[in-house]
Write a structure and sequence with these properties.
Blueprint: H1 3-10, E1 14-19, E2 25-30, H2 32-36, H3 38-44
Antiparallel strand pairs: 1-2
InterPro entries: HTH_HxlR, WH-like_DNA-bd_sf, WH_DNA-bd_sf
Protein name: HTH hxlR-type domain-containing protein
Domain HTH hxlR-type: 1-46
């Protein structure tokens, strides 16, 4: 896991959901705040 990922989780841009199963399962998704910055990120790619 890269360092940059963790600040995104701590700032609640990315939501990490862990499932108690074997083998371990983890899902990642964007929070509402994360979704709100998608247009800005897309614009910066221009």
């Amino acid at each position: 896991m890269c360092f940059g990922y963790w600040w995104k989780v701590e700032d609640e841009i990315v939501v990490r959901k862990k499932y108690p199963q074997v083998p371990p399962k983890v899902e990642y998704s964007l929070s509402e705040e994360g979704l709100s910055i998608v247009p800005i990120v897309n614009f910066s790619k221009l």
